[in-house]
Amino acid sequence: MNTDVVIIGAGPAGIFTALEMLKKGSRKRILIVEKGKAVEDRHCPKEKTKKCVNCKPYCHITTGFSGAGAFSDGKLSLSYEVGGDLPTLIGEEKAQETIHYTDQIYLEFGADTHIEGLEHEEERKAIRKRAIQAGLKLVDCPIRHLGTEKAQSLYYAIEQYLLEHGVELLFGYECTNLILEGDLCRGVCVTNGRDSREILAEHTVIATGRRGADWLESLCAEHNIAHQPGTVDIGVRVEVRNEVMETVNRVLYESKLVGYPKPFKNKVRTFCQNPGGFVSQENYDNDLAVVNGHSYKELKSDNTNLAILCSHNFSYPFNQPIAYAQKVGELTNMLGAGHILVQRFGDILDGKRTWPKELAFSNVRPTLPDAVAGDITAAMPYRAMINIINFIQAMDQVVPGFASSETLLYSPELKFYSNRVKMDEDFNTNVRGLHCLGDSSGWTRGLMMASVMGVLMGRRLA
């Protein structure tokens, strides 16, 4: 099977590569290979069962056309300061210009025209002042919120556009290896478990998302693709009542705060804030259950959830940050009998586990009903746990009530972006014809910056 460009992964990076090639008038044959299903066929059984059933062979929330982002929250960060380290590779000005361009494409396909975080200047200043007093940095980042349910219809429109313009989508197949001749990539090997194929292409684009980071790391090691260990994020999903976050939700929608709490002074940050949202479970390979958060445009809860993430770097003698984070997650899953663990912040400070009956008496009722009450500190590394505790207490100065004894912490929240592939600004690796994009490349974090990387790759290939 021959094509001009084969793209592995139908997440934002892969989708926008194909989309931009079409917009630039390219006549090249484009094939996108996706392990999961078309966006219209992606359904999580939990909608009916009310609990995670650990779908096989993959989680429908993390896998399929549009990737994990569209089925979690669907927020587009419109500042180059948010979304990973791509600006250090291509330049801040180019990154911001491409964000604006990419945002217009999202609008063309039906994104909400409203942008959060541009109004209420005096109140934003007051929040920033409190953040400074607490030793935290408030990052200005306008947000375009697609919403979990609205994002699905938007990506369906993009999917149909690609099909109508000749892009071939091969669903249900996963890439098993590259086809190499010396330092030249000739294509990929794919399989659906019954049928195996070799796909030859002039250009091979790997855009497998956060879920594919571990696989890409092993691929780099096997084929001597230049890379280096990057950062892995280990943390918790925090849930509080909407009343606590009312001002921040209204003024900023998403408060992006960064700190370096004592005594370790590691980078700790907030991520993926969901006003009126719902805590959710995702399942990665090897039955690893991790926590995430959703926020719908219409359906709302009484709570706000957000992630607090600690950045970890490893180089010598241990240089496998993904494996480290997976072990943390596996230990937490073991304590929760395969489920997400939840614990009250006050119980953590008191050195005790949380019991189900205590959750029933709290003002903050969990929006993840099958989370298991327990003790996340029995699995969380000491360094990360101290960072999280101190950051929450600093957040309490910005948002009074955030460090309430009833505040809920869910674990594990893990972000795998650690394998950073070495590339030039045109996304060429040391293997000719091979390009790596999006979160799995280690250069981006989130929907917008992965989409930007796809746009730039599309221009290069067109």
Give the key terms.
single chain; 462 residues; alpha+beta; 8-stranded mixed β-sheet; 7-stranded mixed β-sheet; 13 helices
**How much helical structure, as a percent, in the residues?**
25-40%
Average predicted local confidence, pLDDT: 93
Multimeric status of the protein: single chain
Give the neighbour order of strands across the main sheet: 4-12-13-16-11-19-17-18
Structural class: alpha+beta
Largest beta-sheet characterization: 8 strands, mixed
**Strand composition percent:** 25-35%
Query: How many strands in all?
Result: 21
> What form results from the Cα inertia axes?
globular
Describe the structure concisely for a colleague:
This protein is α+β, with helices and mostly antiparallel strands and 462 residues long.
Plain-language structure description:
The protein is of the alpha+beta class. It contains 13 helices and 21 strands. The protein has helices spanning 12-23, 46-49, 86-90, 92-108, 121-133, 148-164, 213-223, 242-251, 321-335, 345-350, 356-360, 382-398, 447-461, and strands at residues 2-8, 30-34, 75-77, 136-138, 143-145, 168-171, 174-181, 184-191, 196-206, 227-229, 231-241, 257-259, 268-274, 278-284, 288-294, 303-313, 341-344, 372-373, 408-416, 419-421, 434-436. It has an 8-stranded mixed beta sheet with strand order 4-12-13-16-11-19-17-18. A hairpin with a 4-residue loop joins strand 8 and strand 9 (196-206). Helix 1 runs parallel beside helix 13, helix 4 packs across helix 13 and helix 5 (121-133) crosses helix 12.
